[in-house]
Amino acid sequence: MDVMTAIESRKTTRAFLNKPVPKKDILEILNAARLAPSGSNLQPWEFWAVTGTEKDELVKKLLDEQNKVGITYSPGRGRPLNKRYIERSNSFAMKILPYIERAGINDPNWIIQGSLSFYGAPVVILILFDEESYSNEINLGLALQNILLSAHNKGLGTCPLGLPLAFGEMIRDHLKIPKNLKISNIVAIGYADTNNPINEFKSERVSLDEITKLIGFDKDK
Ligand SMILES: Cc1cc2nc3c(=O)[nH]c(=O)nc-3n(C[C@H](O)[C@H](O)[C@H](O)COP(=O)(O)O)c2cc1C
To answer: Global pTM?
Structure first.
């Protein structure tokens, strides 16, 4: 798959088959993360892949915690968003809703429950930022995109997950993650359930005009 095709056709998967992913594929995806660029080549990261009972026990703990604490969906992490971002967030929620309903789900908290259960994915990759590098977390975004695209190239679905970070300390305790490593993102990986309508959803983007400025270019060339 060429790079542009991969970028254009990748989308988030929110329903996975209960089918194991070969370890070889996971290692190749982790290797794609390893090859990402970073400032001064510091490579301020680690990538941990979790599957099997360790992953299942983590999901159970996350859902138990959610039952006690009850976090809500909050794109601004509790801070008020400006109009532009409220509109984008509402648009996402409105547009994904019919797909959730078509999947037969009536739970308004489904995105939260789904995220905390990694949408049933057999494997998760934790993207860990080493704060002792005094580096910039933007480096980990590059590794994240390598993971998403290399998995997509293998026919695997992914969902980057920020919501479970609300219970970051619990995840740290469960997996014994050292204090210097901050959990930056968690990626659910597996084979997409193509029969589930939720996976038909394709999110939109604002137009190129709205978010770009060309400075010093000829008008018509
Ligand atoms: C940093 C980050 C965190 C995300 N966290 C979640 C999450 O917790 N739950 C979820 O369902 N999707 C999550 N997503 C997926 C986004 O909703 C999705 O990428 C966005 O709507 C664009 O859709 P696309 O990935 O299909 O292009 C996250 C994506 C990113 C990049």
So the answer is: 0.96
